[in-house]
Amino acid sequence: MANILVVDDESSVCNWLKNTLEMRNYTVFTAKNGTDALKMVEEAKLDVVILDIKMPDMDGIEVLRVIKKKNIEIEVIMITAYSTIENILDILKIGVFDYLSKPFSFEELEITITRALQKQITNRELLEQKMIARELQIKHDILQEGERRYRTLFDNFSDGVLIIDLEKKKYDYANISICQILGYSVQELCEMDIEKIYHANIRPSVMSNPVCTKEKVINFIESVPCLTKNGDIKYADITFKTVDIGDKWYQIDIFRDATFKIKMEQEKKEMQKQIIISSRLASIGEMAAAMGHEINNPLNILSINFECLCDELGTNVSTNSSKGNEIIEELLDSSHQAIDRISKIIKGLRNYTHFSEAIEKIDVNELITESVDFLKSIYLKDNIQFILELDPLCFKVMGNRGLLLQVLSNLFSNSKYAIKAKKAGTITISSSNLDDQAIIKVRDTGSGIPSSALEKIFDLFFTTKPVGEGTGLGLNLVYSIIQRMHGQITVESEEGKGTTFIITLPNIEKVKLMEKNPTAAGGSS
To answer: How far is CA 338 from CA 169, 335, 375, 378, in A?
Structure first.
């Protein structure tokens, strides 16, 4: 496993991170200041440094700068309770891998560490590309010794290899790795048009490449979108080289699968966007809270006045039943409904912009109703209607209200995306009880999910949306939240007919039993 250095002047933070990371089989070193940290960088072979920005002798930004000068391969994750835009921009320029604000969960930190280690692997693979030209020359020499020798070599080559007969404009050879990458058999590749494996958008530039002519040149193209047999897109870094064997010209194409690298780059860009968005959301949250406070004051006065007017009218209606009184009653009733609607909007806005880490009893029906009341007018603009089928006896559950609200919001958003293709549809939310569990179902009439994707729908970075429209983070976050609440989430879907997400959460009594004795209660952590 990887070697990790934790640098923080707070002993409690160091000890917590050290103990928790060691439970995950990491080798962990600690330092209480920048001087000790730099000494450890010199003495130990480190993969990742978890570094606090605010420290007494040398701040974390200066330590980061020295670490990157000494060993650029070490990935640094910054943590702090105090952050400014200037600090964030500084550490991004210096080369920090990622940035976490205190307080953060260990799950967030562990995901960030995993991504940092994956980046190191990717970087090492990229360095190997520098050796490709030399390897190609060796392969060229072997090709001259006979077809048997080069076939044996290429069949055992970890990268995908395609050899084109430039006169026939056909693939003459394909190794095992390229068949695994693209999903075709050797025979299928040798019989198809050589352009077919490339995405339509890239075909003209690839086929106009000078390498596709009879000239002894080497060329390299990064992140080429290739089409697999089942229509998926995989990205490859491709090295092209032409060779002449006797009186015949061939082109050797070597494919290195870069799909994971592309996803990591996209995620990094997304995380950088999230830093900016988080800052904006914080401002919006403060503004929403202030706005709600300012509106609530006159709203309370109006509400009290209307109640007094209604009481006054109630005493006079029996003696005066004129048409004028009826109109006044209708106006007051309409106004009272408007006040109630404003109150619900303010409450919904506060719920969506304020987050607490508190664990509390949650009324499932109340949470669903509040969420739908806040969103239904927004979704109605896309011809999407909400339908509530709530069991009034549905159990209450234990959890974080804001996180469960996030779960519903993510599921509604997915349903909205699926329904848009049909121009209109419904989202039905139901609640019920089953034994000692509360059941929440979110059912839509959207386009559905392909059966081949159902098993991977909750995987990190997996998405059925086109490139650039989905990050593959939303449903994985939903799955993680439900797991933390000792629950389960499953999905049922049929293409063209819609999707149903089923959430199962233990009631309060079962949660208490699970936390007291997980084995006896049959719970999960």
So the answer is: 73, 5, 17, 18
> For the chain, how many helices (H) and strands (E)?
17, 17
Q: What gap in Å lies between CA 502 and CA 442, rounded to an integer?
A: 7
pLDDT in tens, 340-381: 666 666 665 555 555 556 688 899 999 999 888 878 877 888
By CB atoms closer than 10 A (0-12, 13-18, 19+), residue 392 is: exposed
Distance CA 277, CA 405 (A): 19
- The single-letter DSSP state of residue 454 is G
Calculate mean pLDDT across residues 399-419. Answer: 86
Return d(Cα 314, Cα 330) in angstroms, integer.
13
pTM score over 0.70: no
Kindly report, residue by residue over 175-231, the tens digit of the pLDDT. Answer: 888 898 888 998 999 888 888 888 887 788 777 665 555 555 667 788 888 888 888
User: DSSP string of 124-182?
Assistant: HHHHHGGGHHHHHHHHHHHHHT-HHHHHHHHHT-SSEEEEEETTTTEEEEE-HHHHHHH
Whether the pLDDT of residue 282 is over 50: the answer is no
Q: Is 384 exposed, middle or buried (0-12, 13-18, 19+ CB in 10 A)?
A: buried
Quote the CA–CA distance of 176 and 191 in Å, as a whole number: 16
In degrees, to the nearest 5, what angle opens at C-alpha 145 toward C-alphas 140 and 148? 100
Closest CA to 414 of 381, 362, 368, 379: 379
pLDDT, tens only, 414-460: 898 889 878 899 999 999 999 889 999 999 999 898 888 888 888 76
Identify which of 28, 117, 112, 114 has the alpha carbon closest to the alpha carbon of residue 78. Answer: 112
Q: Report how far residue 467's alpha carbon sits from residue 427's, in angstroms, rounded to the nearest whole number.
A: 26
CA distances from 61 to 44, 57, 183, 191, 203 (A): 21, 12, 47, 58, 46
The better pLDDT of the pair 520, 144 is held by 144
Selection from 267, 263, 258, 259 nearest residue 97 by Cα: 267
Distance of CA 323 to the CA centre of its chain: 61
Find the radius of gyration of the CA atoms of the chain: 31
Q: Which of 393, 417, 392 is nearest to 499 (CA)?
A: 417
Give me the half-sphere count of Cα atoms (radius 13 Å) on the Cβ side of residue 86.
0
Residue type, 65: R
Higher-scoring residue by pLDDT: 30, 514: 30
